[in-house]
Write a structure and sequence with these properties.
This protein is of the alpha/beta class and 394 residues long. Strands 1-2-3-4-5-6-8-9 form an 8-stranded parallel β-barrel, surrounded by 4 helices. Helix 8 packs parallel to helix 10 and helix 13 packs parallel to helix 14. Bound molecules: (3S,4R)-3-hydroxy-2-oxopiperidin-4-yl beta-D-xylopyranoside.
């Protein structure tokens, strides 16, 4: 215990000096293969490391255990790397597949057009879960729970699923046919999950990015084929089939911009009132344009106005391209955000998860903007210590 506290103090001291001067610790130069962190050098016999590296710090999931789960997205390429796997196991108690559970990865075109009954316009999309084993086995075998991501979206979704007989040359399928397709899609997925990975998933982004940036519902093919009540319909279907331990979430971006936030809340209210919404997912792809206060106010507002849980689902913070010390600015942002989230939780706001969209900059979908906590070689950035320090603060 004493060792753990001392190590924590060492890390905090180092963290404060790093955040203050905005420098990353001396480490390996950028290389393509992440290297293990160097062992601390100790002069003379001491049981404490003099230079705590990542391996000496407590994991985020433990530091924030009294507040919320801490998560990351994962993908099969990440899991091939032992250092990444160890970092995930140590730091996170929630993971989300970055891409492999999206419609284009799950819905099997060949099987659908060759084996399903088309006499009724085609109401059954055949699903294939074969690409999921690496990620789901990893989570299950390491006792990490998962967020499902995502069913209904306008991106990474094949266009042919909206047409009669699944034939892109035919007209769009009717509302009735599309609702049956959704019914079968959700039923088959939840049955498969329950049969193969019971209790692994605890939350699911049923719908993603359905609000337009013009603050009215996005004119997606889901909207066009099913109609303006499509979100209410699909959440009711999800409720019918989801195991009771899986919470139903709506997820969106630019969700802290006040006009869009208001529009999202108005759109979701009837679904929450019907008892079919358990949570709001705030993607939180952030930059200096979003104040920490806007984000914190939004967490509170979604939770209180809708009466649901809030998850931060895809957190990253772009480094500034103009600041003299962009790493320090980013670190201060992360620190203020995590301190604020802890305060909100202590104040009774129902935030239960904070998931980062990755951990190593070079694997981020926004890698040009270096939005995450570790450099390519896994050496920690100031932002890593900032999140650690906020987690250790009383
Ligand atoms: C991104 C992935 O990170 C990329 O690998 C992929 O090429 C595109 O999608 N909002 C979401 C996520 O809900 O699913 C997106 O993930 C990022 C934006």
């Amino acid at each position: 215990m004493r060792k753990r506290i001392l190590a924590a103090v060492c890390v905090m001291t180092l963290a404060m000096s790093l955040v203050a001067c905005g420098k990353k610790p001396a480490g390996n130069a950028d290389t393509t293969t992440p290297a293990a962190t160097e062992a601390p050098t100790a002069e003379g016999p001491t049981e404490e490391p003099t230079l705590p590296g990542i391996e000496d710090a407590e994991g985020f999931k433990d530091l924030y255990a009294d507040y919320f789960k801490i998560g990351t997205c994962i993908n099969p390429a990440m899991l091939k790397n032992l250092n990444y796997r160890q970092f995930i196991i140590k730091n996170y108690n929630s993971v989300t597949c970055e891409n492999n559970m999206k419609p284009e990865s799950i819905i099997d075109r060949v099987a659908t057009v060759t084996t399903s009954d088309l006499s009724d316009g085609g109401t059954h999309m055949v699903l294939s879960f074969k690409n999921l084993a690496t990620e789901l086995d990893f989570a299950r075998d390491n006792g990490i729970q998962m967020r499902g991501h995502t069913f209904i979206w306008h991106e990474q979704t094949p266009e042919w699923i909206f047409h009669v007989n699944f034939n892109p040359d035919k007209e769009f399928a009717s509302r009735e046919v599309m609702l049956k397709r959704v019914d079968n899609y959700f039923k088959d997925t939840f049955e498969w999950v329950e049969a193969n990975y019971p209790n692994l998933f605890y939350a699911w982004d049923i719908a993603n990015e359905c609000m337009g940036d013009n603050n009215s519902m996005r004119d997606s093919l889901w909207y066009q084929t099913i109609g303006e009540d499509y979100l209410e319909q699909i959440f009711a279907i999800a409720r019918k089939y989801a195991p009771s331990y899986i919470k139903l979430f709506y997820n969106d971006y630019n969700e802290s911009v006040s006009a869009k936030r208001g529009a999202i809340i108005r759109m979701l209210k009837p679904i929450a009132d019907a008892g079919n919404l358990d949570g709001m997912g705030m993607q939180c792809h952030l930059s200096g344009a979003n104040t920490v206060m806007d984000v914190l106010n939004s967490v509170r507002k979604y939770s209180e106005d809708l009466g649901v849980e809030v998850h931060i689902t895809e957190l990253d913070v772009k480094q500034s391209s103009t600041a003299t010390d962009p790493e320090a600015v980013q670190a201060n942002y992360y620190k203020a955000l995590f301190n604020g989230l802890k305060n909100l939780k202590a104040d009774g706001v129902n935030i239960t998860n904070v998931t980062f969209w990755g951990f190593v900059d070079n694997l981020s979908w926004l890698k040009e903007d270096k939005p995450l906590l570790l450099n390519r070689d896994m050496s920690p950035k100031a932002a890593y210590y900032a999140v650690l320090e906020a987690g250790m603060a009383e």
